[in-house]
Structures are given as C-alpha cells and as structure tokens.
Amino acid sequence: MAEFNFQGKKVYYETYGAGEPILLLNGIMMATKGWAPFIENFSQNNQLILVDFFDQGQSERMTEPYDFSIQTALLGGLLDTLKLDSVNVCGISYGAKVGVDFAVNNPKRVRRLLSFNGAARMPPLLAEISKSWNEAAKLEGGMAYYLATIPVIYSDIFYERQRAWMDKRQELLVPYFGFPGVKEPLVRLTNSMMTFDVVDKLSALDMPVLVVTGKNDNLIPQREQEIMVNSIKNAQHVILPECGHASMFEKPMLFSSLILGFVNSKNSEFAV
C-alpha cells in the first residue's frame, strides 16, 4: 500500500511477501483490489507486486489521450522504485498487452512473461467492440455501459452456471458505472489500445513465455494467441476449456497454478 511519483503523477501499488517477484497486471476494468482473493496464494512463497495503471484504481487520472507507452514506462518506474532489475511479468487482457509491450521494449527486465487472454496487437473485432463500449459510455446511467462491456467478458458456460454471481456483479457495477467521472477514464483506457501492435517485435524475445487462451473467449480469439506462440521462440501455449476472457474468475485454481508453476520452476529446459 504505497505510491510513487511518475512524470508528475501519482501511481499506486502494493507489495506482499518475499521471494521470486511476480508483477501482476490488471485488466482494463480492474484495480489492485480486484486481486484480493489471490494475494494469499501468490505471496506465500513469492513477492507479489500489484499496481494500478494510470486511469485505474487509486492511481492518478489522466486528462489527455495516451497509448500503451506511458503505461509501459510506468512499469519501469515501479521497478526502479522497488530497486528491482527484473521481475516475472504476468498480465491478463489489457494487462497482458501492456506486459508484452513492456517485454519487447525492456527484455532485460523480464525474467519470464505470462500472457492470459492477451494479444500482441489490437484485434480488429475487439477494436469494433471497444467502439461500442465508448458509445455506451456516452449514455446516462450505468446500465448501457454494463451491458456493453461485462456480459461478453465471460463464457456462455460460466454465465449460465454462475448466474447468481453475475447478478451480484450487475447489482454492484451498474450503480458504479453511473457515478460521475467513472466512465471517462475507462474510455481513455479503451482508446489507449487502439494503435497497439508489436507483432513484428515478438521474434526478439528470448525469455520463457507462457501464453494462455480461454477456449470460449468472446473478445480475443485463440488465433491472436497463436500469433504470439508462433512468433516467440520460447513460448508455451495452454488452452483452458470452458473458459472465457476473465480466466482468473472462471478458472481461479488453474490461473494460480499456471502462474506459480511457470514462475517458480527452477529450470526452463530439461534434459531428455
């Protein structure tokens, strides 16, 4: 529970535990508090580092448009603040894209890279879906924005099996999205993804990389993760069945196990 100043703006972060460091990066509509159910697991034998990007959680709000470069630079400032030369970087969705961007621009600072429900570019379909989010953000109240953004994040299987949980999410998020000033930062975060494309830089990565796909992801299809796997020489690919875009909620034990196993394995290569 701390903060540092980066480019004249406040950045909020949290650290827990000690050991091999894991930097866990938020999805677009998340904040550090969203990782609360995972903190005990991830900090038992590791140093867990959480951070709110600009326009998220308790970090400062922006006023002008920006792209991923400022979020990537923010991560470098965080590692400098913590006096860490390198960390294991794990992101989901928006955080996965920022993590990939950080890795291709700062390869020496990334020990191992984990991308959940991510991509190395802005997929055309997601770009169009994101425009619908921004249109919904112009409407009064929170219901239109909720319906445009939240249901599609989850697989149809999860939505049916966990309908009571989804109903509680709606009760919580619809009023939140209706509060003054909540949707404007989300629009800026959404727009920051639009020009993202580092596919041509992936071949330069040489750290171990784990790419995780939700088989039933409605936002970022498996093809986008296959682009990453086919472009990165040390990439491994895991496909989670009956799982949508929010893999940490739909498959929390698998999510945790994959991260902890990949990060804490002593060797990245084994003699056969």
Number of strands: 8
Provide the gyration radius in Å.
Answer: 18 Å
β-sheet strand percentage: 15-25%
Q: How would a crystallographer describe the biggest sheet?
A: 8 strands, mixed
Q: What order do the strands of the largest sheet run in, or round the barrel if closed?
A: 1-2-4-3-5-6-7-8
Large-scale geometry: globular
Distance between the termini: 45 Å
Question: What's the quick description here?
Answer:
This protein has 11 helices and 8 strands.
Features:
272 residues, alpha/beta, 8 strands, globular
Question: How are the secondary structure elements laid out?
Answer:
Elements: E1 2-6, E2 9-16, E3 20-25, H1 39-43, E4 46-51, H2 68-81, E5 87-92, H3 94-105, E6 110-116, H4 124-137, H5 143-149, H6 156-161, H7 163-178, H8 183-191, E7 209-214, H9 222-231, E8 235-240, H10 247-250, H11 252-264
Parallel strand pairs: 3-4, 3-5, 5-6, 6-7, 7-8
Antiparallel strand pairs: 1-2, 2-4
Helix pairs in contact: 2-3, 4-5, 4-8
Describe the model.
The protein is α/β, with parallel strands linked by helices. Helix content is 40%, strand content 18%. It contains eleven helices and eight strands. It has helices at 39-43, 68-81, 94-105, 124-137, 143-149, 156-161, 163-178, 183-191, 222-231, 247-250, 252-264, and strands at 2-6, 9-16, 20-25, 46-51, 87-92, 110-116, 209-214, 235-240. Strands 1-2-4-3-5-6-7-8 form an eight-stranded mixed beta sheet, sandwiched between helices. Helix 2 (68-81) packs across helix 3 and helix 4 packs antiparallel against helix 8 (183-191). The longest helix has 16 residues, at 163-178. The N and C termini lie far apart (45 Å).
